[in-house]
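Re: beginner question about structure tokens

> Can someone show what the tokenized structure looks like for a real chain? I only ever see the sequence side.

Sure, here's an example I had lying around. Input first:
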Amino acid sequence: MTDLQPPPPETTPPRPRRWLRVVLVLSLAANLAVAGLVFGAWVSHDGKRGPDGPRGDKDRIVRELGFGPYARAIPREGREGMKAAIEARRSGLRANRDALRSAFEATLATLRAEPFDRAAMAAQMETQRSAIADSQKIGHEILLDRLEAMSPEERAEFADRLERGLGREPGKRKKRD
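And the corresponding structure tokens:
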């Protein structure tokens, strides 16, 4: 009986570790969340940008002209009416945009160069500032022409929309500290 060997241990497959299962579930959840966000953005994209309506060159131009809160106060129909004035100044606006693009290209090269050339960077920033100021000047002239053509009632409505855009209730003065 000395030949008896103990019975071989039962070979049961090892249980997967609990943390591995948790990691896999979290990974799947994250992937599904990202896929859902992408799909949702794709399905809901209807070519609009907020309350201002369709995307397009004219809205981009309105922003580039430096209208700031004035642009939000102009009703959509008013922006359509300004399109002719913007088109008439298109060449000047394009020149400013091209100058700005060139200045930024030069800026990127200057930023990557060694040693840093402060004078070159200052000149490029001045070119950028000048192009932006020229575009804003054109925009302000177009806006002033539009405001001048409005009736007193239309200007009052514009003022109310501008005031709401600034986060204030129309007709109420801001309290001083």
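Each token stands for a local structural state, so reading them left to right follows the chain. The first helix runs from residue 18 to 44.
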